[in-house]
Amino acid sequence: MNNHTQLDPSHQNGQLKRTPMNARERVLAVLNRETPDRIPVDIWLAPELVETFKAHLGVETELDIYRKLDVDKIAWLGIPYKGVVLKDPNEHQEVNHWGVKFEKVEASSQVEYGEVSFSPLLEFDSVEELDAYPWPNPDDFDYATAAAEAKELAKEFVTLGPWISLFEVYCSMRSLEEALMDTVAEPEFVHAALDYIAESQGEMVRRFLEAADGAIDMVFISDDLGSQSSLLMSPASFEEFLFPRLKKWCDMIHSYGAKVFFHTDGASEPLIQRLIDAGVDILNPIQHVCPGMDCNAIKAKYGKQLIFHGGVENQKILPFGTAQEVAAETTACLEQLGPDGYLPCSCHFAQADTPIENVMALIETVQRHDVSD
Fold first, then answer.
1. Given CA atoms 284, 287, 288, 294 in this order, what sign does their dihedral have?
2. What is the DSSP letter of 138?
3. Is residue 55 a contact partner of residue 358, using CB atoms and an 8 Å limit?
4. What's the rounded Cα separation, in Å, for the pair 174 and 222?
5. How many domains, the chain?
6. How far apart are CA 203 and CA 200, in angstroms?
7. Which residues contact 151 (CB under 8 A, 6 or more apart)?
8. pTM, to two decimals
């Protein structure tokens, strides 16, 4: 790792000590490819697990969980749209600002999640219908409130947000099946819809970045490009439909001094270089159980161009393994994706039934890891 961190001139056991950092300084050091006092640890908790931890720790707010556990939380930013805060993709409204309707599905006696029940573009068959659709208006976002929150959070944490997407939004508005078929059968329709989606969100993000005046460290772009075993769309379709719009977003975000945090689940390795070419800075979540996503190979091929976030397996080991297995998995990720350019975290949101001791095993394993390893 680069030794750009400040060193304490005092000696301990004959060695220089690194000056202690807070959560924000620690994450920024990794993002800037400098050496932190220790490797930072982030964690994503589903809303039900947040409530479990609040009760377990005796705290009132989600951020107090991370303060008490000394987690280097990357704080999510939301932005109110007509009074509704758009922050956590786990928290679906009945109807969102794209006109997509959701219904609550009971996953267990304690857990509900939102499932798309109505896709407003499903029956559309012409560009003229898209032209007449009531797309979200950037004027309807509350930038002042969002910017004030960003400035407050940035005093203590690295900030991430808002959540924006190209093809994921299109899929929810059109349905996944129709959206994928459209890339082959209806390219003009896809281009027109994505133009509206990209322009609405791009202008919203630009105004938010302007209002926040440097308090937004990263913008979260989410487009799941891979399934458990392969790509969801061909490289040619990515090149035609997503790359130009993604690059335009990245260039704009970079012009305000912020970085691009890109989320794609699954076997997405064939598109990683083009994500880099578009301007992606941080890649999440590195789902290494999928073909082509081996941590050692990904680090060797892309580690000088990308910061990695995530890694810790979240389908079997974190929710169903033992604390010892979680510790071993976390150590493997640290050794293969780190020590530099890596922000350890669960591979996705730790779900409601994930044992507290397993989440703690992840956190404590990172906190004990020698930064010089």
1. negative
2. G
3. no
4. 17
5. 1
6. 6
7. 212, 213, 215
8. 0.93
Do the Cβ atoms of 367 and 38 come closer than 8 Å?
yes
Three-state secondary-structure class, residue 82: coil
3-state class (DSSP) for residue 349 = coil
CB atoms within 10 A of CB 255: 10
∠ at Cα 195 (193, 200), nearest 5°?
Answer: 100
- The span from the CA of 45 to the CA of 197, in Å, is 28
Residue pair 143/207 in contact (Cβ under 8 Å)? The answer is yes
Residue 182 lies in a domain: yes
pLDDT digits (tens, 9 = 90+) for 237-290: 999 999 999 999 999 999 999 999 999 999 999 999 999 999 999 999 999 999
What mean pLDDT comes out for the span 60-82? Answer: 96
Range of the domain at 227: 22-89+120-368
Percent of the chain with pLDDT over 70: 91
- Torsions phi, psi of 124, nearest 5? -70, 145
- Find, among 309, 353, 319, 356, the residue nearest to 109 by Cα: 353
| Residue 267 token pair | 């076997």
Query: Within a domain: residue 304?
Result: yes
- Could you check whether the bond before residue 80 is cis, i.e. omega within 30 degrees of 0? no
**Which of 47-80 are b and which e, b meaning 16 or more Cβ less than 10 Å from the residue's Cβ?**
bbbbebbbeeeebeebeebbeebebbbbbbbbbb
CATH of the domain at 292: 3.20.20.210
Tell me if 109 is assigned to some domain: no
If you write DSSP's letter for every residue of 270-305 in order, what string do you get?
GGHHHHHHHT--EEE---TTSTT--HHHHHHHHTTT
Look at residue 86 in the predicted model and tell me its pLDDT.
Answer: 58
Residues 347, 316 contacting (CB under 8 angstroms): no
Q: Which two tokens stand for residue 150?
A: 């960003």
> For residue 311, which of 43, 76, 50, 72 has the smallest C-alpha distance?
43
User: Which residues, other chains included, contact 297 with Cβ-Cβ below 8 Å and sequence gap of 6+?
Assistant: none
> Does residue 110 lie in a domain region?
no
pLDDT value of position 114: 80
pLDDT tens readout for residues 199-241: 999 999 999 999 999 999 999 999 999 999 999 999 999 999 9
Joined tokens for residue 238: 């990515």
pLDDT tens, position by position, 28-69:
999 999 999 999 999 999 999 999 999 999 999 999 999 999
